C-alpha cells in the first residue's frame, strides 16, 4: 500500500480484523503480509473498498528453490520422484537452461515441512545445495501509475499520466502534441521522463555480491570463501578438512583470468581472503561493465602479456566513457 494521508487508519482497521498481519514500512510503501490466504483475500477487498492506492503481491502458495550440483543431463522425473519420496509436495521442476551451471528450479507446495528442502544435502547420491530462487534483476515500471517494482496487472493505484502527471492513463492523455519540455512525474525534475533510467528515482539494479548469492550459513563449502581466518595455503593442505569438502570441489570463479591463476601457484602463502576480495571486485565490475567481461574472455585467448593489458585498457576506457 502506498503511504497516503490515512494509511494509519487503514492499518488500524486491518489489525482489528486480522491481528496476525505483519506490516513493514519500505519507504514510500507499507508492505502488508497477511497470515493466511483467507486474510489475503479479505485485506485485498478492504483496501479496494477504502480506495487505498496499492498493488497486489500474490499470496505465496509455493516455495521456489534452485538445486545446484546435479549434472545437466539429470532427468527431471528422477529429481521429482526422489523429492516426493522424501516427502516434498513437488509442483513443478524445470531445468534452468540459460544458466552456465546446471541448475534445476523446483516449486513445492507451501507447508510446514516445505522449508526443510533447504536442509537437503544429498540427491541421487550426489552432494547438492539448495538456495532460494531469485528472479533475474531488472526494474519493472507500471504502465498504469508509472511507479516501480510492480506491473499494471497487479496495480490498484490511481493512474498517473507519464506526459502530464494527471490522473489518467498515458494512452488516454488528451495532450497529443509532442512535449516541448520533458518533465518527470516521479522526481519532479525537467529534462527526462519518469520512464528514463536517468531519473534518480529509477531503481538501481542490484548487483549480486558473493555473500548475497548463496546463503553462507547453509553450506560449509561456501563458508570457506568468506572465512577471513582461513588462508588459501591452509585450504590446500587440508588443515581444516573437518568441515571442508575435498579440494576438487573448490568452486572456481569462471571469470578468473589466466594471470591470476598463475599468481596463486607462485605464492604459496597467498591469503584466500585477499583472493576472494579480488574475485569479488572483478565480479562487481564485470556485472556492471560487460565490456570488461568480454575483455577477460579475449585476454585468455592470447599469451602475450602486453596484448592482454591492451585489451584490458581498451575495455576500461570504453566503460569509463559510458
Ligand atoms: Zn501501478
Ligand atoms: Zn496526460
Ligand atoms: Zn525523474
UniProtKB/TrEMBL annotation:
<dbReference type="InterPro" id="IPR001878">
    <property type="entry name" value="Znf_CCHC"/>
</dbReference>
<protein>
    <submittedName>
        <fullName>Nucleic-acid-binding protein from transposon X-element</fullName>
    </submittedName>
</protein>
<feature type="domain" description="CCHC-type">
    <location>
        <begin position="184"/>
        <end position="197"/>
    </location>
</feature>
<dbReference type="InterPro" id="IPR006579">
    <property type="entry name" value="Pre_C2HC_dom"/>
</dbReference>
<dbReference type="GO" id="GO:0003676">
    <property type="term" value="F:nucleic acid binding"/>
</dbReference>
<keyword id="KW-0863">Zinc-finger</keyword>
<keyword id="KW-0862">Zinc</keyword>
<feature type="compositionally biased region" description="Basic and acidic residues">
    <location>
        <begin position="241"/>
        <end position="251"/>
    </location>
</feature>
<feature type="region of interest" description="Disordered">
    <location>
        <begin position="241"/>
        <end position="266"/>
    </location>
</feature>
<dbReference type="GO" id="GO:0008270">
    <property type="term" value="F:zinc ion binding"/>
</dbReference>
<dbReference type="InterPro" id="IPR036875">
    <property type="entry name" value="Znf_CCHC_sf"/>
</dbReference>
<keyword id="KW-0479">Metal-binding</keyword>
<dbReference type="Pfam" id="PF07530">
    <property type="entry name" value="PRE_C2HC"/>
</dbReference>
Amino acid at each position: 500500500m502506498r503511504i497516503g494521508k490515512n494509511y494509519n487508519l487503514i492499518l488500524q482497521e486491518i489489525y482489528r480484523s486480522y491481528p496476525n498481519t505483519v506490516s513493514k514500512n519500505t519507504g514510500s510503501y507499507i508492505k502488508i503480509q497477511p497470515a493466511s490466504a483467507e486474510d489475503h483475500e479479505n485485506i485485498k477487498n478492504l483496501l479496494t473498498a477504502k480506495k487505498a492506492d496499492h498493488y497486489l503481491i500474490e499470496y505465496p502458495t509455493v516455495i521456489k528453490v534452485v538445486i545446484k550440483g546435479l549434472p545437466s543431463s539429470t532427468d527431471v522425473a528422477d529429481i521429482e520422484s526422489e523429492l516426493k519420496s522424501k516427502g516434498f509436495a513437488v509442483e513443478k521442476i524445470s531445468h534452468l537452461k540459460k544458466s552456465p551451471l546446471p541448475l534445476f528450479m523446483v516449486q513445492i507446495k507451501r507447508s510446514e515441512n516445505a522449508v526443510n528442502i533447504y536442509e537437503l544435502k544429498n540427491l541421487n547420491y550426489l552432494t547438492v545445495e539448495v538456495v532460494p530462487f531469485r528472479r533475474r534483476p531488472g526494474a519493472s515500471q507500471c504502465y498504469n501509475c508509472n511507479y516501480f517494482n510492480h506491473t499494471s496487472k497487479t496495480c490498484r493505484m490511481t493512474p498517473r499520466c507519464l506526459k502530464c502527471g494527471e490522473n489518467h492513463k498515458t494512452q488516454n492523455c488528451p495532450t497529443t502534441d509532442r512535449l516541448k519540455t520533458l518533465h518527470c512525474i516521479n522526481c519532479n525534475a525537467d529534462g527526462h521522463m519518469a520512464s528514463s533510467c536517468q531519473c534518480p528515482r529509477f531503481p538501481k539494479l542490484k548487483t549480486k555480491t558473493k555473500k548475497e548469492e548463496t546463503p553462507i550459513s547453509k553450506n560449509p563449502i561456501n563458508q570457506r570463501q568468506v572465512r577471513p581466518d582461513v588462508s588459501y595455503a591452509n585450504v590446500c593442505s587440508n588443515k581444516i578438512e573437518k568441515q571442508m569438502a575435498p579440494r576438487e570441489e573448490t568452486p572456481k570463479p569462471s571469470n578468473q583470468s589466466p594471470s591470476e591463476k598463475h599468481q596463486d601457484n607462485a605464492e604459496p602463502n597467498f591469503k584466500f581472503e585477499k583472493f576472494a576480495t579480488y574475485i569479488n571486485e572483478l565480479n562487481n565490475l564485470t556485472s556492471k561493465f560487460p565490456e570488461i567481461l568480454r575483455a577477460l574472455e579475449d585476454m585468455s585467448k592470447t599469451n602475450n602479456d602486453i596484448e592482454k593489458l591492451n585489451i584490458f585498457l581498451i575495455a576500461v576506457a570504453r566503460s569509463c566513457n559510458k
